């Protein structure tokens, strides 16, 4: 899984028929501190996410296993909206 921030939506009127009804979003993949690792990936939405939402992303075959994506030709899916990330700081090097 990866962390992503939804930045927009995609409208495609001509597409694979299996994608009819699928909501497609644009997301930036981020690290846990919010730094962008990869920009503008297209994800299938399974959790009613919208612009600005922080989401969990799955890719590859896991993206096609999500309930709303069963059998869809997608490579990445937003499967959860993140409420909170709690990062523990390391005590290494501290006295």
Short description:
With 95 residues, this protein is mainly beta. The protein has one helix spanning 61-65; strands spanning 2-10, 24-30, 36-45, 54-59, 76-81.
Could you explain how this protein is built, in words?
The chain is mostly beta strands. It has one domain: OB fold (Dihydrolipoamide Acetyltransferase, E2P) (Beta Barrel). The protein has one helix and five strands; from the N terminus they run E-E-E-E-H-E. The protein has a five-stranded mixed beta barrel. The mean pLDDT is 89.
Low-confidence stretches: none
Helix content: under 10%
CATH class: Mainly Beta
Distance between termini? Answer: 34 Å
- The H/E string reads EEEEHE
CATH evolutionary superfamily: EutN/Ccml
Strand order of the largest sheet: 1-2-3-5-4
Number of strands: 5
What is the level-2 CATH architecture name?
Beta Barrel
- Taken together, the total number of domains comes to 1
Approximately what portion of the residues adopt beta-strand conformation? Answer: 35-45%
The main sheet comes to: 5 strands, mixed, barrel
The rounded Rg comes to: 15 Å
- Give the assembly state of these chains: single chain
Number of helices: 1
Question: What's the layout of helices and strands?
Answer:
Layout: E1 2-10, E2 24-30, E3 36-45, E4 54-59, H1 61-65, E5 76-81
Parallel strand pairs: 3-5
Antiparallel strand pairs: 1-2, 1-4, 2-3, 4-5
């Amino acid at each position: 899984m990866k962390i992503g921030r939804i930045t927009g939506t995609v409208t495609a009127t001509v597409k694979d028929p299996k994608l009819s009804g699928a909501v497609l979003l644009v997301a930036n993949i981020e690290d846990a501190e919010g730094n962008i690792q990869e920009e503008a990936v297209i994800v299938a939405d399974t959790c009613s996410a919208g612009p600005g939402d922080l989401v969990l992303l799955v890719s590859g075959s896991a993206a096609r296993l999500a309930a709303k994506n069963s059998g869809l030709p997608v490579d990445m899916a937003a499967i959860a909206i993140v409420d909170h990330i709690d990062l523990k700081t390391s005590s290494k090097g501290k006295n």
